Amino acid sequence: MMRNKTKKIRAGNLYIGGKSPVSVQSMTNTDTHNVNETVRQIKKLEKAGCELVRVAVPDLAAARLLGRIKGRVNIPVSADIHFDYRLALEAIKQGVDKLRLNPGNIGGPEKVKPVAVAAGKAGIPIRIGVNSGSLEKTAVKDLAGAMAASALKHVRLLEKFNFHDIVISLKSSDVRTTINAYRKIAEKTSYPLHLGVTEAGPEYTGTVKSAVALGVLLSEGIGDTIRVSLTADPVEEVRAGFEILKALGLRKRGLELISCPTCGRCRINIIKIASQVQEGIDKLSEKYPELPSVKIAVMGCVVNGPGEAKAADIGIAGGRNSGVLFKGGRVVRKVKEKDLVRVLLSEVKKHINKKEK
């Protein structure tokens, strides 16, 4: 898959754009004034593989706590700023790794300039975030075009102040509007793009909408970093993000489960087994966050299973009250149904240990 050529920028220890891997972000939903709670949540996101976390900055008191939060976590911290440019200035003083702001809602050029100058001196990139809901009502006829035009206007303003470490996002809750907006901006700039569907919804529907929009754009080479915005635990955003990237072959990391749909040939409880295996590999993924890619298969039919899943590193396929363990498409041994999950997870652990060595 050919990705669009974009400028490479750095946020802490994370590179975005250029030939850097497409990264996965999330955002805390804690009260930023509560440092301990916020740090705990970021630690959970780190375990899930999150590569950059955004933190809301509602007021100056919260801004002044960003340094304490950043000092206790391991991934880059981005400050989410709205309405008051002084919050951005304080966030920069606190040493955040990135700013997310919409220059259009923090005042005129005279308020954007000090932020651009301070961020430039500190080497902190700025994400220009344009959401469809924040545009003027006159822009409704061509919403995607208006979003792209608004972002470019803000880009030119930052460039006027000699600031060029810019990331752009154009988010809508509508999938087609999101896709069209990113396509338009990708034609007009080489700044890296942060992809997402805003207000996507609860975990199930939000993941589907995000996968459709991000999948289309990423398959076209558009996008350098992503967030799956869900009304759910932020950890689920990270998991969904990596699953989208893995499905497109853009990230080869961690444990991936493939399983067949149940059918009339199936003689084991494959739905239950697949669920139990997923729980097991989720725990292993937390224990080995930097694990190289391992593909695991749970198949319902002994006849076709190993052949259909021959690309898997390791897997099981069901028979009548039993199944087989296979590796690389080759059957290794027969296993009782009650032991299938235990045997598979045990073999996965062995496979992980070999890879780690």
Q: Tell me the total number of β-strands.
A: 15
Radius of gyration, in Å, reads 23 Å
Which structural class do the helices and strands define? alpha/beta
Tell me the overall shape.
Answer: elongated
Task: List the secondary-structure elements in sequence, H or E.
Answer: EEEHEHHEHEHEHEHEHEHEHEHEEEH
Instruction: Tell me what portion of residues adopts beta-strand conformation.
Output: 15-25%
Structural overview:
With 357 residues, this protein is of the alpha/beta class. Helices cover 41% and strands 20% of the residues. The chain has 12 helices and 15 strands. The strands form 3 sheets. Strands 8-7-6-5-4-3-10-9 form an 8-stranded parallel sheet. β7, α6 and β8 form a beta-alpha-beta unit. α4 runs parallel beside α5, α6 crosses α7 and α7 runs parallel beside α8. It is elongated and about 75 Å long. The model has no long low-confidence stretch (mean pLDDT 90).
